[in-house]
Amino acid sequence: MAKNNSEKTTKLLQRRQAPLATPTDLEHSAVRDIAGTMNAILADVFALYLKTKNFHWHLSGPHFRDYHLLFDEQAEQLFGMTDAIAERIRKIGGPTIKSIGHISRLQRVLDNDADYVDPLDMIAELADDNKTLAARLRETHDVCDEHRDFATASLIEVWIDETERRTWFLSEIKQRRR
């Protein structure tokens, strides 16, 4: 009996130390390339989510209610993308980001820690960040196409559309500046 428990314990310890291994028909290089670019997207989406929430929390001025609700809606959409991105990375056998520090090393969306940002500057910054995210999603789509990862490419197409919609809404508000 003791020997049986010892074998089970040994096997359990081996499983705990084993690397994550998700079966996929994609080549190792494809998983590496796609997971790498998707993790950068994931970091950007988290950074953009937090920036959008930051602006949502620190907004003031005559259009407070409209912008407050818009930022909240857009932040929800961004946060909703995060799990789908991370799960897609795992489905193809790649590792995902693991911490805020990991996000900060990969993110390309710049933080805004200013004590005060004018609401129209918030709008402009978020519009530019979303426009840039759409371009990066297209680049990632190209990587997926190169490796024939149609499922990831399909998800990215939806995220591009959502990102373009956020950009459009914010850009229409920016028109007031002209």
Question: Tags for this entry?
Answer:
6 helices, mainly alpha, 178 residues, Ferritin, 75% helix
Write the layout of secondary structure elements.
Elements: H1 2-17, H2 28-57, H3 64-91, H4 100-106, H5 119-146, H6 150-174
Question: What features would you describe in this structure?
Answer:
By secondary structure, this protein is mostly helical. The protein has one domain (27-177): Ferritin, core subunit, four-helix bundle (Ferritin, Up-down Bundle). It is built from 6 helices and no strands. It has helices spanning 2-17, 28-57, 64-91, 100-106, 119-146, 150-174. Helix 2 (28-57) crosses helix 4 and helix 2 runs antiparallel to helix 5. The longest helix has 30 residues, at 28-57. The protein is elongated. The mean pLDDT is 93.
Number of helices: 6
Question: What oligomeric state is this?
Answer: single chain
> Uncertain runs with pLDDT below 50, 5 residues or more?
none
Tally of individual domains: 1
CATH class: Mainly Alpha
| CA(first)-CA(last) distance | 81 Å
Summarize the biggest pleated sheet. Answer: none
- Please state the average pLDDT score: 93
Identify the CATH homologous superfamily.
Answer: Ferritin, core subunit, four-helix bundle
- Tell me, briefly, the overall form: elongated
